[in-house]
């Protein structure tokens, strides 16, 4: 299996984030990808390739151009205002407040284009996110070009990013960009399976009223787990997309048996859909030692996940999402990939 590695991920290097009301050292850091790369190399999974630049147009197929322009220029604006350190959102247009007019105020637009205070914008956020999307498109090229599978190693993650907002550490929704590009290349049905601990609210929302992408997610129950306001079982799609969204929320601390039962339920739905491509939002923050998540998977379970995805039988594109136990993330990712495609 080829790995598409976005070396420019390191440009996004937040030092702190807001977590449970306090400023703490950032969890989403460059070392995450460094450990995965080292594990991929040690396991000799296959060739490691650099992303090819496909330009901005594929990103604009799923993200509002005004939003992308904001993220691209936000750091320069912040610096021009004399900002110190990373930029954090602090005010949001909730409920009866208007969001259809973009204010001139930088602080207001930070809120307009974000969903939380836990996602700092840094000097290299746009560079890292842009090239993460290019890596995802390059991985898609590999699969559409005849490879059975490909793995995209990038950060920051993507599945919380909506069409016009960032949050949950995410700026560009890599899974959505790849899915739309696959459809634009001629595919008719694409499935996205999200196995991150946190529900991919951005991915769900982007395709919620469409039937050409089936989104299925198993995750921590949003009654208690981020992103809190999306990811419930009764969210099944709307309009043309009714029946093409499936959420399988599990309580914090759920057993591995319960997790795999949810996986089987999700794959049953996807099997009936008969996708031409499976995109896996591969978060390994389901690991029992993850500092901000509450499931119990370990390497044997991650290997089992890979084996089950291989048995699903579809062309598969793995995209890196979460996983914040830094020193374990590489081993956990490799366990999935080797389970999917064992070395001869």
UniProtKB/TrEMBL annotation:
Coiled coil regions, renumbered to chain:
none
Could you tell me the Gene Ontology terms of the biological process aspect for this record? epigenetic regulation of gene expression
Keywords, ordered alphabetically: Hydrolase, Metal-binding, Zinc
The cofactor(s) it depends on are:
Zn(2+)
Q: Which GO terms describe its molecular function?
A: histone deacetylase activity; hydrolase activity; metal ion binding
Q: Which InterPro entries match?
A: HDACs, His_deacetylse_dom, His_deacetylse_dom_sf, Ureohydrolase_dom_sf
- Hydrolase as a keyword? yes
Every copy of the Histone deacetylase domain together lies at 28-338
Family, similarity comment? Belongs to the histone deacetylase family.
This chain belongs to the protein called Acetylpolyamine amidohydrolase
Question: What species is this protein from?
Answer: Kinneretia aquatilis
